[in-house]
Amino acid sequence: MTEFAYRIRKIQAELNIPPTNFDSDILDENTVNRIDYLYRKSPPPSHEGVVKDEDSAAESSDIDYAQLMSWSDKSRESLQEKRNHAHLLHTSQIFMLT
Predict the structure, then answer these.
(1) What is the rounded CA–CA span in Å between residue 20 and residue 33?
(2) How far is Cα 53 from Cα 47, in angstroms, rounded to an integer?
(3) Which of 35, 33, 29, 30 is nearest to 13 (CA)?
(4) CB 6 within 8 A of CB 27
(5) Is the model's pTM score more than 0.70?
(6) pLDDT tens sequence across 56-79
């Protein structure tokens, strides 16, 4: 497990992406610092200014579930109509061939 954690941190450092924080039982702090020193070209990107999930506008706005459900009912009806039409065309072509 330690070997995989080491590889993951190394790749993250090389790609300059935020590192995964493994438990100290898996990857100790000295090893983490050594990986960052050897492979990280710049400090890991900070998350300042990034909106957290719980604060996002999509989560906070009210969703009209009734409208979503009515749309899906209409789309199911139109889909069924298209299927029926395709089936009728297919069966009529079969009868024309015979």
Answers:
(1) 13
(2) 12
(3) 35
(4) yes
(5) no
(6) 455 545 777 676 666 655 566 677
